[in-house]
Structure formats: structure tokens, C-alpha cells
Amino acid sequence: MKWYLSKDGCMYLQTTTQAYKDVDQIIDSVVGASLAAVVAKCKPMAAIKGI
Q1: Is the pTM of this model over 0.70?
Q2: Coil vs helix vs strand at 32
Q3: What residues in the chain have per-residue pLDDT under 70?
Q4: Which residues, at least 6 apart from 2, have a Cβ–Cβ distance to it below 8 Å?
């Protein structure tokens, strides 16, 4: 993770991909344990930063 200083003086934390779990692995575990069923799969279209 890295900290960034913006033009307006605010500090922002940039996370890395290692900070998140593999979504497919989590879904497979939940479905395999019969806790839920997959009804749809979404794909991200964009990531908006700096707002």
C-alpha cells in the first residue's frame, strides 16, 4: 500500500491487489457449503478515482 498526497493536501491510501481475496474462490466456497447460489455474474466496467 502507498500513501499519496493530493494537490488539495489530502492523504490517500492506494491499496494493492494483494489486499483483496480472490472473489471466485470465495464464491466457490460459499456455493460448495450450500450457503448461497450464484444467480448472476458481474464484470467491472470502470474504476473511478480522484473524486
Answers
A1: no
A2: helix
A3: 1, 17, 19, 51
A4: 13, 14
Q: What one-character DSSP code corresponds to residue 3?
A: E
Phi, psi of 14, deg, nearest 5: -100, 115
| Identity of residue 6 | S
Rounding to the nearest 10 degrees, give the CA dihedral for residues 17, 26, 28, 22: 10
Helix (H) or strand (E) holding 13: strand 11-14
> Closest by alpha carbon to 2, among 32, 46, 12?
12
The position carrying cell 472473489 is: 23
